[in-house]
Structures are given as C-alpha cells and as structure tokens.
Amino acid sequence: MAALNIGTGASSHSAYDLRDHHETAERSHTLAVIVDNEAGVLARVIGLFSGRGYNIDSLTVAEIDHAGHRSRITVVTRGTEAVIEQIRAQLSRIVPVHQVTDLTTEAVAVERELALFKVQGKGDARIEALRLAEIFRANVVDSTLESFVFEITGAPEKIDAFADLMRPLGLIDVARTGVAALARGV
C-alpha cells in the first residue's frame, strides 16, 4: 500500500495540488495608465484592483496635460504574466482610459521615488545616521537635538535599503511618495 503525502510539500503528483506548475512566478510590474482627468476615474481604476483581489504596492497620480485634461496613474503591482495581462486588458476596457503600458516588459524604464525618514538618535547612532545619509546622498531637511528628517530619492530598492539601515539607528517614521516612472528614449 502506497503512503499518501498530505503535508505542505510541493509534490506535483498530489490530486489536491491545484497550483498551475506551468505558470511563471509572480514579479513586480509598473503600469503607466493615461486617463481623462475627471472625478471618479481613480476610484474606477482602484475598484478594478480591489474587486479582483489584486494588491497595489505603489500608486501615484498626477495631471500630465492640463489643456487635454489627462492624468497619469502609475501603479506597481505583483502577479504572474497572465495576471498582469488580465489587469492590462481590464484597465483598457475602462472608458476614460486612453493607454496602458507595462513599463516592466514593454520598455526600459526609469523609476524613482521620494521618501522622508525621521530618525531619532544621540551620540554614535546620530553620527552613523549622518554618515549613511551622506553615502546614500540623502539630504537633511530638518534637524533637532534628538532627531533628523532625511529626504532621499532613487529607485525603490535604494529607498528600501536606506530604511533597513536606519531601523537599528532609531527610525521612527517614514513617508513615501510611491513610484514615478517613464520609459527611456523617444
């Protein structure tokens, strides 16, 4: 009699393993969505994500054409290629959406983010925070005797790395703008 493996292992022979083993892994995608700048458009775009259980890692919105009443929504989300293609197709069907571009796969993109970090510290921790800020090219935009507020811009990975280094030195608050991205070239 054969033993039945009912553990949490990744056996591809189990009748109960419903995962699609041919599907590619999830990864982060940056989508640029050009929309009419009118009330309710952002709510419709966000509703698409929340209604289908898709997570948004980052979201930025700004008007890009005042005369043409157009805005750019930059969304960073995670999913398999099939999920991202489904999101793109569903976004394209929303009436005020003019263009959806996956900057992760369709173009080489420049991605930047701005963040503010409040770091509390005295003595050696304060000196180390200043030293790391200099290395990361972060600017001191506010200072008291017990804390600093640093401003840093760069790729999201740079922002994450700075946060990781500031945590043990007394990081007490963070504000991030979200990703802004553009395709390179013409």
TrEMBL record:
Matches recorded under Pfam families: ACT_AHAS_ss, ALS_ss_C
Taxonomy, superkingdom: Bacteria
Transferase as UniProt keyword: yes
GO molecular function: acetolactate synthase activity; acetolactate synthase regulator activity
EC number: 2.2.1.6
Family label: Belongs to the acetolactate synthase small subunit family.
Quaternary structure note: Dimer of large and small chains.
NCBIfam families listed in its UniProt record: acolac_sm, PRK11895.1
Listed name of the protein: Acetolactate synthase small subunit
Species name: Paenirhodobacter enshiensis
